[in-house]
Amino acid sequence: MHNLISFSGIFVIMAVAWMLSADRKVVNWRVILWGTLLQLVFALFIFVVPAGSQVFLMVNEVVVRVLDSATAGIRFLFGRLALPPGTKNEAGEESLGFILAFQALPTIIFFASLMAALYYMGVMPKIIRLFSIVFTKLMRISGAEALSVSSNIFVGVEANMTVLPYLKTMSRSEICTILAAGMSTTASSVLALYVFLLQGRFPTIAGHLVSASIISAIAAIVISKIIMPETGQPITLGVEIEPHYKKESSLMEAVINGANEGVKMLVGVVALLLAFLGIVALCDLMLGAVGIKLNDLFGLHADWSIKGILGYLFYPFALIIGVPPVDALEVSKLIGERAVLTEVKAYQDLAALMSAGTLKHPRSAVLAAYALCGFAHVASLAIFVGGTAALVPTRTKDISAVGLRALAAATLACLMTAAVAGTFFVEGSILLGR
Fold first, then answer.
1. CA contacts within 13 A on the Cβ side of 154
2. How confident is the model at residue 36 (pLDDT cuts 50, 70, 90)?
3. Which of 140, 164, 160, 141 is nearest to 151 (CA)?
4. Which residues, in sequence order, are CB contacts of 164 under 8 Å at separation 6+?
5. For FRET with 11, which of 269, 275, 287, 311 sits at 20 to 30 Å CA-CA?
6. Is the confidence at residue 86, as pLDDT, over 70?
7. Number of helices and strands (H, E) in the chain?
């Protein structure tokens, strides 16, 4: 029954996107049909086909092994502070517990360097171009947006650098698509952070996050083309284009530049967490004072925090994607929390819920992991709109105009990804790693 609910949820989410459409009379059925089919086939391969499950487990193992390597530098720099909970170092010193700043966040720098090295060696451009060809040929979207979406599977806002020569001539629909793809997927550099947060309770989380980012990229195309349909004729429609990027003079330079970019990203994540956690805490304080009076006046037991209010808003969506009703409110609160406090805090709270045994069904944790896998939050909107506008200042007005629609598309795309995963996931699956 839960699988059927998830399957029907795919189409309910598309219906919601259509209600938010800038032009409901224009519907690109080719994008919808091929996009939905690609998501379902990929999820079927991963969750049902034995060979697909083995590929999934292999990817998970590779990511975990690489993540273990990433912690070598962290342990050298921070010593005992870098030890995960429940572990000891060679000197017999025990961990001081989980410390986000010293154990998880520094992995961003390592993975940024690794991706830069893979770009220099030509590995990433080939993989990105392969995804781009599939999207262009099957869904017949423009080569420029297909390339940007493909890049977003692996990197963040810098993905738009790969289509820099085409940004000036992109339609609003294309701009909406690349922004939505950026906010509905996750960069490999921060994916490691999520793995670190959840791996203890969810051994195969790395594989799930990789598959979630791929499915979300396709979902972003589908939802964004419904919300902001193409009414013109893109210059690169159906045309394959080469990635545009500046190649460093040596592998060492690529690693150094990647590390420097990772430091910038790390500082950005820390700044966002410091600012938004503080602002939200202040808002919760004011809302709580009003909420206590309302609860007493009307005999309510409502949660008047921002997380609680958004949880009520996303509660129907949690049910739609197939989360069991007993866990739906908790999962909806996580989705609402991601909208304002970033996915880092939401994943941290998901790990806490799993550790406390609050979630009653394994299915709930899996769907939550898929639904949260993306930068679909207010802070990210500012980053992607501002970053893209900085690349092409002449299009600032158009980029700003589609920003909120792109955020809505990204949020719905992440929910659609969870619904696709829920369509095929069954309890007892080897993909839980238990």
1. 21
2. very high
3. 160
4. 244, 391, 392
5. 311
6. no
7. 17, 0
Q: Which of 27-41, 62-76, 147-161 has the highest mean pLDDT?
A: 27-41
By CB neighbour count within 10 A (0-12 exposed, 13-18 middle, 19+ buried), where does 281 fall? exposed
Q: Which residue has the tokens 């589609």?
A: 402
Whether this prediction's pTM lies above 0.70 is answered by yes
Q: Can you give the residue ranges of every domain in the chain?
A: 2-432
- Report how far apart, in Å, the C-alpha atoms of 132 and of each of 126, 139, 142, 421 are: 10, 10, 10, 23
What is the amino acid identity at position 104?
A: A
What burial class does residue 357 get, using C-beta atoms within 10 Å of its C-beta: 0-12 exposed, 13-18 middle, 19+ buried? exposed
Look-up: residue for tokens 């572990």? 87
20's CB contacts (< 8 A; 6+ apart) are 227, 405, 408
Read off the tokens for 46. 């991963």
Instruction: Tell me the C-alpha distance between 171 and 177, whole Å.
Output: 10
DSSP string, 93-135: PBP----HHHHTTTHHHHHHHHHHHHHHTTHHHHHHHHHHHHH
**Which sign does the torsion angle of CA 76, 77, 79, 81 carry?**
negative
User: Using an 8 Å Cβ cutoff, are 122 and 248 in contact?
Assistant: no
Other beta carbons less than 10 A from residue 138's beta carbon: 17
